[in-house]
Specification:
6 helices; mainly alpha; elongated; DUF4760 domain-containing protein; 167 residues
Length: 167
């Protein structure tokens, strides 16, 4: 019996099993990374919304900014500018996580609809023309090349019981 052949066969089998185990571990790690990002995304969303809940004047100001940036007073523009930057940085991050296939496609679809809807508000457009260069070219192109929805994503003031369909 050729012991060298047996030893080489067992060693080869060990290498093959190690590769399969490594692939399994990488897949589990990838899933964990995606789950962590989704959790982080949710926390960031909740933090942004918490600001609006805890300070109803801030929420009302952002709504007015979405509807008409140019009509705001200087101090209102200052505060709204910071809120828009915070929101658009968050969206820019989501866009790149989507491009890297980290963000689940189902989550991307719903967040994309929100982004596009708010982006096409009159006031958001007025703000964007002044601040667009602060964002990465690919993200700008994504937003600017998006089709304006038939029905703009409503602000609270706009909610009148109308239904909105998925794009």
């Amino acid at each position: 019996m050729d012991y060298e052949l047996i030893i080489n066969s067992v060693a080869s089998l060990g290498v093959i099993l190690s590769v399969f185990f490594l692939a399994y571990q990488i897949k589990k790690n990838t899933t964990a990374v995606k789950a962590n990002y989704s959790d982080s995304l949710n926390r960031t969303n909740m933090e942004y919304l918490r600001q609006m809940i805890e300070n109803s004047e801030l929420g009302e100001l952002m709504e007015r900014a979405c509807n008409g940036w140019d009509e705001l007073e200087e101090n209102e523009k200052r505060t709204s500018n910071f809120m828009f930057i915070q929101l658009f940085r968050h969206w820019e991050n989501m866009y790149y996580q989507h491009e890297l296939s980290v963000l689940d496609k189902r989550l991307w679809s719903s967040h994309r609809n929100t982004m596009i809807g708010y982006f096409h508000h009159k006031g958001t457009q007025e703000w964007w023309k002044h601040r667009r260069v602060a964002f990465a070219r690919e993200f700008r192109e994504f937003l600017e090349n998006s089709d304006k929805p038939a029905k703009i994503y409503p602000t609270i003031k706009d909610l009148t019981g109308q239904s909105f369909t998925e794009e």
